[in-house]
Specification:
Length: 361
């Protein structure tokens, strides 16, 4: 098991039983969602003398995922369109003298980076697990997202610096017609990319979606700014102000991404789950369950959640281990969207005399 997951006892300690391997390896092509069941039904008071029943249910994932090839094609198409518009905005901003357009091109550079990382992560995540990486390469998308955050923060600093320089110096001439045309093309492209990405759920793909959404808002603002400056030629300060607004949007996206990355790396309980509610759901999944403890829930990668727990069963129901195990797993999968579970079933009389947490009390 892992340490540091959400626990109803607050112990933060996952205990591995002697004689049980820490990793579980999937054969190539095997479904990733799986559950383990351990049953302790030894004599009362004999914590060190118990048998183990293992139940594996592969391919029980309750999520609907798009085929990897479909996701890769969508990401590749979005990346190609983003890169094309990025170059157009950079050239248009340089020719027109609009810092807002150059800033938007820089923002699209991070969009392209996010899409590129999502594309690489989709390919890497498909690699099968091995003896060293028992979860496979699913966390690769988190590493990619960290690189993307660095790019976002650096870009924000550059835009803010350039905008301040223009606000404190003589007005810079801007070709408003060219600025408006390029912004309109960028807006149309961003809307098309949003349509393509709306069904993608990976961390980097959602990061890219947020970037493109902010870019769409930026394109609208640039169009509106060009119109205002056309009506009021002396309002050239509006261009750097728009640039600062774009940088604020970029920073907002970076902070959101940092928070999500931190939650995954700290193995926090997924945001859509409540530990107490999950515990109650498990306890009420089948007759005979009297308690649930050592409950840990964490995120492996986007959309793939894991859980480990001990389920205490009344002595009169110990012969129903498989039935209880199945009921608990179905509840976790259908109600809480948790596909990867490791569940240890034990009698109410089972003494945790060899557990690490027991030695500390």
């Amino acid at each position: 098991m892992s340490t540091g997951h959400g626990s109803d006892q607050g112990e933060g300690v996952g205990v591995d039983r002697p004689g049980h391997p820490r990793g579980h390896r999937h054969a190539p092509g095997e479904a990733c969602g799986h559950e383990h069941g351990h049953a302790h039904d030894g004599p009362a008071g004999r914590g060190g003398d118990h048998g183990h029943d293992h139940a594996h249910a592969h391919g029980l994932g309750g999520h609907h995922h798009h085929a990897p090839g479909t996701s890769v094609r969508r990401l590749a198409a979005s990346l190609a369109l983003t890169a094309t518009i990025m170059v157009a905005e950079a050239v248009g901003g340089w020719l027109s003298g609009s810092l807002a357009l150059v800033s938007d091109a820089g923002h699209m550079l991070t969009d392209a980076g996010a899409l590129g990382l999502a594309l690489v992560a989709a390919w890497v995540a498909a690699r099968p697990p091995d003896d060293k990486r028992t979860y496979g390469w699913r966390r690769a998308e988190v590493l990619g997202a960290q690189l993307n955050v660095g790019a976002l923060i650096g870009l924000t600093a550059w835009i803010a610096w350039e905008a301040w320089d223009r606000l404190t110096h003589a007005p810079h001439p801007i070709q408003l017609g060219l600025m408006a045309v390029v912004a309109a093309v960028g807006l149309a492209a961003n809307l098309a990319i949003l349509v393509v990405l709306r069904h993608e759920h990976g961390l980097n793909a959602r990061s890219a979606f947020l970037h493109v959404l902010a870019d769409t808002i930026s394109s609208v603002a640039i169009l509106a700014g060009a119109g205002v400056m056309w009506l009021r030629p002396d309002w050239t300060w509006l261009d750097p102000v728009l640039s600062l607004t774009i940088s604020a949007l970029i920073l907002w996206g970076a902070l959101r991404l940092i928070r999500e990355i931190t939650d995954i790396l700290m193995e926090s309980v997924p945001g859509h789950l409540d530990v107490a509610e999950v515990q109650r759901g498990m306890a009420g999944a089948a007759t005979g369950v009297v308690a649930v403890h050592d409950l840990h829930i964490w995120t492996i990668s986007s959309g793939l959640y894991a859980l480990s727990a001990h389920v205490v069963v009344h002595a009169d129901h110990m012969g129903r281990n498989d039935e209880i195990l199945t009921a608990v797993k179905v509840t976790l999968r259908d109600r809480f969207r948790i596909d990867h579970t490791t569940i240890q079933i034990e009698s109410a009389a089972y003494a945790h005399v060899n557990d690490l947490c027991s030695r500390g009390h």
